[in-house]
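Cross-posted from the bioinformatics board.
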Amino acid sequence: NVVEQVRVKVNDAESTVSVEFTPTIPHCSMATLIGLSIKVKLLRSLPDRFKLDVHITPGTHASEHAVNKQLADKERVAAALENSHLLEVVNQCLSARS
Amino acid sequence: SWSPCGQYLASASFDGTTCVWKRQQDGFEVVATLEGHENEVKSVAWAPSGTLLATCSRDKSVWVWEVDDEEEEFECVSVLSAHTQDVKHVVWHPTLQLLASASYDDTVRLYREDDDDWLCCATLEGHTSTVWAVAWDSSGQRLVSCSDDRTLRVWQRQDSEGQGSGSEPSWKCVCTLSGYHGRSIYDVAWCHLTGAVATACGDDAVRVFEEVTPVSPMSPVTFGLAAHVARAHAQDVNGVAWHPREPGLLATCGDDGDIAFWQYQRPESL
């Protein structure tokens, strides 16, 4: 259980979705992977018109600025997902059921 | 990036290579593949002299390549590792052998040749997030940068008088345009015919800015929003370019997979 809570805000009229997640451990090295998995799930589930914002709950992670910046950079995200190993890990994260 | 003669096209790829294509009678053919970057090549730029090519990558480096007379042999003459993060974009000065780069480290850097090597001669700081692209004005005295921080910054070359001969010119941010863009600004283009500045934004809009004629030489530099198409594309606009010879003709491209052509006219009210 690596995430305490997820806060989601949807503005359909403006086509924006914001997902805020709180890693259970402030130095959790999985934060980027968790954020990326959330982002991928949203990308695969929502219509193209939506602008996605996935970030760490402010004050809950030591490297939140660096992680948030990576998640917000669509070029970095696209390049990461071209890495077959990383893509497989993300897919595994998304397929696991509790 | 097109070569100045128009016979060659260079393309940068996420596979880490840069290809150089030569125009044939019925299409294009690869005449060279440039390797060396450790990961995705984000941008390639052909210098106006036709003898140099620049590439940049997520590996944080900018490479300068020399083209030989035959135009089909490329040699890397410098690897510049001044940036501390991914380099997103490179663009050459319109007349001098001066190169600008934009980076995930929130800065713009300039490079010039010194003896037989290249060095970073200026670092432009001010943006608070990734700089996605830069563009030079037609004179080369100014450049404009666009950022994930949703602002445009105009930088002007400062005279190096009083600093002694041989000192580097410095660059000062003379104008910051904020409050216009709703999301990350992915590209910027400065028209060399009219001076208009166009932007490509993650809020799906295309905007054009024009400099407001200063009242006196001491007035601050200001740009006004001259045109705004809110839904230029159905998704993020990623690229924008002015036609080099036809004033007002603008091309844009987006995540929606479309390329759009626009005719812009300076409003009389400006």
